[in-house]
Recover the amino acids of this structure.
């Protein structure tokens, strides 16, 4: 099983930046930990939402917004 992140602009469109990381993880926990460490950099790069994929199946999606 491979766990990966798919990136979207805030409006749901795919981001235009081609230099976004394309990490692959062996566990959901590793994927979520990586996102926890890197979400701010992704948001600054134009990512507004992410979706966690298990192989090709979307597990969940969420917005990358700071908690105020």
């Amino acid at each position: 099983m491979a766990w990966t992140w798919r990136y979207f602009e805030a409006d749901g469109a795919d981001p235009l930046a081609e230099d976004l990381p394309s990490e692959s993880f062996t566990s959901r926990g590793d994927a979520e930990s990586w996102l926890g460490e890197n979400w701010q950099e992704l948001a600054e790069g134009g990512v507004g939402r992410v979706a966690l994929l298990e192989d090709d199946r979307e597990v969940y999606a969420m917005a990358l917004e700071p908690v105020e």
User: Anything to note?
Assistant: The chain is about 25% helix and 30% strand. The first helix runs from residue 28 to 44.
